[in-house]
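Sanity check. The docking grid for adenosine-5'-diphosphate depends on where the pocket ends up, so I'm generating a full predicted complex first rather than guessing from homology. Inputs follow.
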Amino acid sequence: PPPAPAPARPRVLALANQKGGVGKTTTAINLGTALAAIGEKVLVVDLDPQGNASTGLGIDRRARQRSTYDILVGDASFRETIMETAVPGLHVAPATLDLSGLELEIASARDRAFRLRNALQGLAEDDAAARYSYVLVDCPPALSLLTVNAMAASDAILVPLQCEFFALEGLSQLMKTVDQVRTGLNPNLVIHGIVLTMYDGRNNLSEQVVQDVRAFMGDKVYDTIIPRNVRISEAPSYGKPALLYDLKCAGSQAYLKLASEVIQRERAARAAA
Ligand code: ADP
Ligand code: MG
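Predicted complex below; grid placement will be based on this.
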C-alpha cells in the first residue's frame, strides 16, 4: 500500500482587532459555518473570556466542562475539550470566564506566548482527532497575551473592521503588534485580509469608510462586504449561526461569499509558494 500521507496541518486564522464590537465573533461563527457548509472541517477556538463564540454556536455555559483556559494552563488537550455544534463539520473549543485570569497565571512562564501553538501542534499529531482544514481563533478585544498567543499560533490574521467613523483608528497599533510577533515569535505571520462589516447602504458614511479603507489598505481588503443585517444580530440569542437561523438573509449570503473568497486566497497563496 502507498505510505500514509503526512497529517495535513490545518490553516490557522485569527480573527483579531483590539476594538470590541467590530464583528470578530460574528465572523468566527459565520465564516466558520460557511466554510463547513462548503465542505471544510472547521474548528473555532474561543479565546475570549466572554465566550460569545461558544454561546453563539449553541454551547450552553453549563455544558463547558473543559475550556480553552484548561488547554492554555496545560490541564487539558484540544481533544478532551472540543465540542460538536449543530453545524456538521464545525467544532468548537469553548471559553469560560476563567480565561480572564490566565494572563497573570502564566505571566512568568517561558512558553507563555506559545501555549496555543503547542496545544494545536498536539491536536495535529493526535491521530484520533479529526483533521481540520481550518482553525479560526476568536480573539478578545485587546492586544493581550491571549491575542499574542493567537498570533503566534496562526498562519494569518483576518481583521474585521466596522464601517463607521474611526474604522481605521487602532489599525496601526494592530499592525505594530503583528510586526512584533513576526520578529519575535512567528516570522511567517501574514495579514490574510480585512473584512468590512456592518455596512449600511442607507448611510453615506459607510460608503465613505469603504473607500477610505480600500485606498489605505488596497487589495488586502476582501471584495465581500458584510452588510448590517438584523438577522445576524438576532441569531446568537437562538444559539445558532445566522446561516442556520436564516440562510437566505443578506448577512448569511455575504458570509458564504466571504468563505469562497478566503478559500480562493488560500489557493492563490499556495500556488505562489
Ligand atoms: P466583536 O467580537 O468584535 O466584539 P461581535 O461580533 O460580537 O464583535 O459584534 C458586536 C455586535 O454587533 C454583536 O451584538 C453582533 O450581533 C452585532 N453584529 C455583528 N455583525 C453584524 C452585522 N453584520 N449586522 C448586524 N449586527 C451585527
Ligand atoms: Mg467578540
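Relevant for the grid: Residues 20-26, 52, 141, 197-198, 226, 228-229, 232-233, 236, 251 surround adenosine-5'-diphosphate (ligand 1) (CB under 6 Å).
Also worth noting: The chain has one domain: 11-272.
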